[in-house]
């Protein structure tokens, strides 16, 4: 038993005993403990925390523990699940608990603290998306924080119960009362119940003195809460602090719209959407009943200086905003007439069907430089700019230096920068110092980032005021030629690339080209780079989407010489060891791990042209057996040789087919040998599809089938779970944004339980069901902790999907719509309405729709060919991200019909919407929130 308070040389303080009691079921080998801010609870050192013991009571398992403290004790604390060595396995979600002992406690009193484990889903409503946006009412009644005190003297047999409940979703002006069966709780009469006081952090508290008496009706959702206080027991605590979890109410559900910033069209833009356009988008969202606007990544991607940079997931900097989204008209109040005319001409020239990435960016930067040259001293000497520079210099100065060096050397490949290839703070300070010829170039990058910050902040503040969540996107990777890999090279595995194994999007897998993360190095400063990223995002967003959340469990890692995503391995993962393979009777490792190329395979693949292929790309190392030549033994080498070989005229017209055929040969393995340890191997994805596998003996085939299944679906689960529980909590605790995870693709079994445990909201796309035996997802069966959508930016729109495959359309019409009739070949507004309504009516917390799918509710907006509305083609690594909505936001705001149609879907589905009145609220804005609590005597 721990104690607190001075004991020597002075009169001892009054001490009381705290009895903590929590109902919770654990697995074998697990136990609970409390860690808190005070020494009596370990000073946040979990291994020094208060251990709890299991106690069975009325068929329920409680964890209990006692500690002696001074009568005026206060502390923050949390509950943790630990193993036998007190290693943390999980901890409860939500804010730290705050313990303040009731007034009047006396020396020797026993104070019983009854808690509920704080569930992650309940804690979501304490995130900024809800706390500071949806449930924040700056114009509403301001609550005064009140202390919880006793207003009556105690008799010897009296017991004080302190009721504590979390109500983050209550509007200002609400009243919370406790009613129950005890006379002190007014025998279920709500109007005379015990009124709770708001004490901050969404908590309501009140003290109640219980005396011997009893009863039983009901009000709040769910069963009656029970105090179970035995007033006649001599062992009953003198005080009971009853933390009763969250107010039980109907699940909150909202809706939103998704559109990339670059796709927005307005009367003011220069050929591409801009941050200030978000204010118009927010207005449209509010009119349509939406609480959320979801964007794609908005970071600078200017790596190549061409349209390839339109790919928003390949960041030049994870901190800098993209100059593409700058509104040059807002840079100054004193823009000269000739520059204003240039802007007007640019608006006309750039007003195209799609985004002209290069023209829009270069035009904006050119105009911004002219305005910068006119007002640089005024802006850069302003107090607001100096504050911005001071708060952001850690990333801003390296970013500006990088941009200068990129342009000077005409490449972002920092390995080509001579003495500047290796970053150092000393070199940085010299590069950005005053007095250099290029100092204004450096300052121009500061200037642009400052205005981007100001413009996005203005839009973000506007969204919060309108009760609309701005939801950002956290890319899983960074470009290998980025500021981040230059400044922090040890955080990345630069000899690797990131991708995804074959899935719905691409049967050959995806290769995104990003280096994988060196998680071991990142952990040394508690993932400081990640924490800084999230802190930066939280300046603008109150929610975010974690791109490819599977990457925090394991990533699909490819060698940097790969061009496709097929021949990779998971990192981390437990490989197949040479000893393990030998024990299974597999010994011919070269046969299984090198490309299996036989003459008959060449003839089958290339026909009579096989001899040309063999002569140019292969060596015959034994009769009818071939291997690749040194200059073309990787995918990237093959691509280069096809382009540069003197014999390229032989295959010029067949180049694509030849490349695919050579890739097939190179990928014709069943085992992948580890580059760093040749005694370790990984099963090649879909190994049974290869002729290498087909020509093996039956014993080897059976062993490999079993090992393949074990590697991909069994042996890694615990490793991946532990990996995610190291990294994801750091992200979640780095800000108070609401976090959602993109969990599509090949999903390990550990993913959804971990996401549920951490309070992470998943994603459900109807055409990509997570259930293996379904072709189409069933929205009515989705879980609450998800976002549901009919499509997303990584796939075709609802219209395009409907019209591109007749057989699939027929199956959908029969199984989902439930009709045996012939479906319309065109995705009519009626079809769109049916599918969209399915998602609005579904259980998920959020239904978020691409703007294209919403506009398809009206014939007027379906004149554009459906395939042109697709934002991304994941099968094409060089896809041009340039989709622009074909109608301006101003004209959409004038279309009251479609806004009313969408809002009707929101309201009829029971989803929350901005401006929604609180049911039953009177003119004083008070709502009686009845908490049923059956206090037994």
UniProtKB/TrEMBL annotation:
GO cellular component: cytoplasm
Catalytic activity: Transfers a segment of a (1->4)-alpha-D-glucan to a new position in an acceptor, which may be glucose or a (1->4)-alpha-D-glucan
Keyword set includes DNA repair: no
Region: Disordered, residue numbers: 908-937
Record carries keyword ATP-binding: no
A GO molecular-function annotation: 4-alpha-glucanotransferase activity
Listed PROSITE patterns: CBM20 (PS51166)
Compositionally biased region (Basic and acidic residues): 916-929
EC number: 2.4.1.25
InterPro entries named in the record: Carb-bd-like_fold (IPR013784), CBM20 (IPR002044), CBM20_DPE2_1 (IPR034840), GH (IPR017853), Glyco_hydro_77 (IPR003385), Ig-like_fold (IPR013783)
Domain (CBM20): residue spans on this chain: 10-118, 153-286
Cellular compartments annotated: Cytoplasm
Keywords recorded for this protein, A-Z: Carbohydrate metabolism, Cytoplasm, Glycosyltransferase, Transferase
Signal sequence annotation: none
Top-level taxon of the source organism: Eukaryota
Top-level class of the enzyme under EC nomenclature: transferase
Family: Belongs to the disproportionating enzyme family.
Protein name: 4-alpha-glucanotransferase
Organism encoding this protein: Urochloa decumbens
């Amino acid at each position: 038993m721990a104690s607190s308070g001075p004991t020597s040389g002075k009169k001892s303080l009054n001490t009381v005993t705290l009895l903590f009691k929590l109902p919770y079921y654990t697995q074998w080998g697990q136990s609970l403990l409390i860690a808190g801010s005070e020494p009596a609870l370990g000073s946040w050192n979990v291994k020094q925390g208060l251990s709890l013991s299991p106690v069975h009571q009325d068929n329920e398992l409680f964890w209990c523990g006692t500690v002696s403290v001074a009568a005026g004790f206060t502390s923050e604390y949390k509950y943790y699940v630990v193993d036998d060595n007190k290693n943390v396995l999980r901890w409860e979600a939500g804010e730290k608990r705050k313990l303040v002992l009731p007034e009047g406690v006396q020396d020797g009193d026993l104070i019983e603290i009854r808690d509920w484990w704080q569930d992650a889903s309940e804690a979501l409503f304490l995130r900024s998306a809800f706390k500071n946006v949806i449930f924040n009412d700056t114009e509403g009644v301001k609550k005064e924080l009140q202390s919880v005190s006793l207003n009556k003297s105690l008799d010897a047999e009296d017991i004080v119960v302190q009721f504590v409940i979390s109500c983050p979703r209550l509007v200002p002006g609400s009243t919370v009362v406790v009613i129950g069966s005890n006379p002190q709780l007014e025998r279920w009469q709500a109007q005379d119940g015990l009124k709770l006081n708001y004490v901050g952090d969404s908590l309501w508290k009140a003290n109640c003195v219980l005396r011997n008496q009893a009863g039983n009706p009901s009000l709040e959702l769910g069963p009656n809460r029970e105090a179970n206080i035995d007033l006649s027991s001599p062992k009953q605590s003198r005080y009971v602090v009853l933390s009763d979890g969250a107010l039980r109410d109907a699940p909150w559900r909202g809706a939103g719209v998704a559109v990339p910033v670059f796709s927005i069209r307005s009367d003011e833009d220069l050929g591409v959407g801009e941050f200030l356009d978000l204010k118009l988008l927010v207005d449209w969202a509010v009119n349509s009943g939406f609480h959320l606007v979801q964007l794609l990544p908005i970071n600078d991607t200017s790596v190549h200086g061409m349209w390839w940079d339109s790919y928003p997931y390949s960041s030049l900097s994870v901190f800098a905003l993209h100059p593409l989204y700058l509104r040059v008209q807002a840079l100054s109040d004193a823009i000269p007439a000739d520059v204003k005319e240039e802007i007007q001409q640019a608006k006309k020239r750039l007003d195209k069907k799609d985004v002209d990435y290069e023209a829009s960016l270069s035009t904006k930067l050119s105009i911004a430089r002219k305005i910068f040259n006119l007002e640089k001293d005024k802006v850069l000497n302003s107090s607001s700019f100096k504050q911005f520079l001071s708060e952001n210099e850690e990333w801003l100065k390296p970013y500006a230096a990088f941009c200068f060096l990129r342009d000077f050397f005409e490449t972002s490949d920092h390995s080509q920068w001579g003495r500047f290839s290796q970053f150092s703070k000393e070199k940085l300070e010299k590069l950005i110092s005053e007095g250099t010829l290029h100092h204004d170039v450096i300052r121009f990058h500061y200037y642009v980032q400052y205005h981007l910050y100001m413009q996005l902040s203005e839009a973000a503040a506007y969204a919060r005021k309108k009760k609309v969540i701005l939801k950002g996107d956290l890319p899983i990777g960074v470009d290998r030629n980025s500021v981040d890999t230059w400044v922090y090279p040890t955080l990345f595995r630069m000899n690797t690339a990131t991708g995804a194994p074959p899935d719905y999007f691409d049967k050959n897998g995806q290769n995104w080209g990003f280096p994988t993360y060196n998680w071991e190095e990142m952990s040394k400063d508690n993932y400081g780079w990640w924490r800084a990223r999230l802190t930066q995002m939280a300046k603008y967003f109150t929610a975010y989407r974690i791109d490819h959340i599977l990457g925090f469990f394991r990533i699909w890692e490819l060698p940097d010489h790969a061009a496709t995503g097929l021949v990779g391995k998971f990192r981390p993962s437990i490989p197949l060891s040479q000893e393990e393979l030998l024990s299974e009777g597999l010994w011919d490792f070269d046969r299984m791990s090198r490309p299996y190329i036989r003459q008959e395979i060449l003839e089958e693949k290339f026909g009579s042209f096989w001899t040309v292929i063999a002569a140019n790309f292969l060596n015959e190392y034994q009769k009818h057996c071939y291997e690749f030549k040194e200059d073309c033994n990787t995918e990237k080498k093959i691509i280069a040789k096809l382009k540069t070989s003197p014999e390229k005229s032989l295959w010029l017209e067949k180049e694509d087919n030849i490349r695919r055929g050579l890739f097939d040969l190179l990928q014709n393995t069943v085992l992948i040998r580890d580059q760093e340890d040749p005694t370790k191997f990984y099963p090649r994805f879909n190994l049974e599809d290869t002729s290498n596998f087909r020509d093996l003996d039956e014993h080897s085939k059976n062993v490999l089938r079993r090992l393949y299944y074990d590697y991909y679906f069994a042996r890694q689960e615990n490793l991946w779970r532990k990996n995610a529980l190291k990294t994801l909590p750091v992200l979640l605790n780095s800000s108070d944004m609401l976090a959602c995870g993109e969990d599509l693709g090949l999903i390990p079994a550990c993913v959804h339980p971990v996401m549920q445990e951490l309070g992470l909201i998943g994603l459900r796309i109807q055409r990509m069901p997570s259930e293996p035996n379904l072709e189409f997802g069933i929205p009515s069966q989705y879980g609450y902790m998800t976002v549901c959508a009919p499509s997303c930016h990584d796939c075709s729109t609802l219209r395009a999907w409907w019209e591109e495959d007749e057989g699939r359309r027929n199956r959908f019409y029969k199984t989902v719509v439930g009709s045996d009739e012939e479906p319309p070949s065109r995705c009519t507004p009626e079809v769109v309405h049916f599918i969209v309504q399915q998602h609005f009516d579904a259980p998920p917390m959020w239904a978020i729709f691409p703007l294209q799918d919403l506009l398809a509710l009206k014939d007027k907006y379906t004149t554009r060919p459906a395939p042109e509305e697709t934002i991304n083609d994941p099968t094409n690594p060089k896809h041009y991200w340039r989709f622009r909505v074909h109608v301006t936001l101003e004209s959409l705001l004038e279309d009251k019909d479609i806004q009313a149609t969408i809002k009707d879907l929101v309201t009829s589905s029971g989803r929350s919407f901005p401006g929604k009145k609180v049911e039953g609220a009177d003119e004083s804005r008070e709502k009686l929130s009845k908490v049923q609590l059956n206090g037994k005597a």
